Each structure stands twice: as C-alpha cells, then as structure tokens.
Known about the structure:
- With 245 residues, the protein is of the alpha+beta class.
- It contains 5 helices and 8 strands, in the order H-H-H-E-E-H-E-E-H-E-E-E-E.
- 30% of the residues lie in helices and 24% in strands.
- Strands 1-2-3-4-7-8-6-5 form an 8-stranded mixed beta barrel.
- It starts with 24 loop residues before the first helix and ends with a strand.
- The mean pLDDT is 78.
Amino acid sequence: MKPKGTIYHLGRSGTHGEILLFLPSFIRLIFYLVRNIGAGLIALAVLTFSFSYGPVLKQEIYYKLGELGLPVSNELIYSSDSIKSADAESILAVQKEAQGYGVTSYFSIVIPKIAAKANIIANVDVGKKDDYLEALKKGVAHAKGTFFPGQSGTIFLFSHSTDTPVNFARYNAVFYLLKKLENGDSILIFFADKKYEYEVVGKVTTTPTDTSWLVPKVGEEELVLMTCDPPGTTWRRLLVIAQPK
C-alpha cells in the first residue's frame, strides 16, 4: 500500500525529502464530528452550570464584596400593641414600604443583610410534595398548622426543596445566604398590611427527618426559617431562629 501525496520533490530541499500524507475522507469526517461534539458538550456544560448556579453565585460574590444588603426603614417599626391601633395612613405607609422592597404587604419576608425578599405562600402542607414544590416556585412557603405574625406562636417558613442542580436555581436561591445571618440581624415580615420585625437569636443544623420544629410553640412568638444545608443538597436542614424585636 502506497501513501498518497508527494514523497520527494526534487529541488525543494538539498538535505531531506518532503512527505505529505492525506487521511481518508471518512477518518477526517469522524475527526470533525468528534471535535464538534466535544465543543458542543463543553458549551452545554457551561450553560447548565450558569443556569443552575448563576443566581446563587452572584449573591455569594456580591455578599463578599459588601454590595448586598437592603436599607431598613426605621420610620414604621411597630410593636404588637401599636399595630392594633394603626390607622389608614400607617397602613398605606406599610404598603408603600413593602412595594419598595419589591414584595406585597399581604404576606412577605425581607432579610436586609442578605438582600433576600419574597412573597410568602400561606398554609402549605409540608406532607404533600407536589403542593410545596408548586408553592416554592412562587416564593417562600409557610407551613400549614403553624402561626402567623402577631399570634404568639411559632411561625415556620421554608424554602428548601432541591433535589437537582436545576431545582437549586428554581427553589433555593431565596434562602441561599441564610447561613450568613448572625444573632441580632433583622428579619422583616409583612402580614395583612402590617410590619413585624424580628431579630436572629440562634441557628441550628439538624437532619431532614427532624420534624420537631414543625410543632408550634404556643404563648411565645418565634420565627423559624428553614433551608437546605449545604445549599443545593438535601443532606441536612439549617434553621434560623428569630424573636420579635
């Protein structure tokens, strides 16, 4: 079998010959296909990573640069007693403040330190996966059977259902930086055109099967926020505990 191409070209070189070999067409075609498929897989991997982790990586970077955080208004911080006598003017002010954060005053949460803000879906059954997955597409979920602000009991909110990297971006970004909260940090809850302010008093890491925190305490108002730990997994649960400020 003789190679195709020029083996020796007289006069081209005084010391050596020139060899030009040509690959068969089908081998060149396979080479081009493999190269293009590889490039396509790399591009797909980059797009998948950006879609899945882009929102939370952006929050992490902004937090480290000190660019995250929302201003807290001190003009309308109500105690549970003063809320009861709020007039129309103060209600409008609360509505305006909630709108300024990009949420409603019907039921929503704002955590200024980590720039977390979302509307809250009330009375979500934690025992029905389809129900809470649907709720978490719209915002943070309030566990059915727990209390509401101002009712002197446990208020349980969660944003934690992630079983794939894609769901990580869809469901978990709201509470992704919850681990950054420390004692004394402020959490705002808007409920029924009233504003409630809480401060963090502790953090707990527990197992996914620990349901003790879903049993509401009566007589002492307590806010519990739950998310997955580490973010993007279902290995453990991170709980942030807060009390009325």
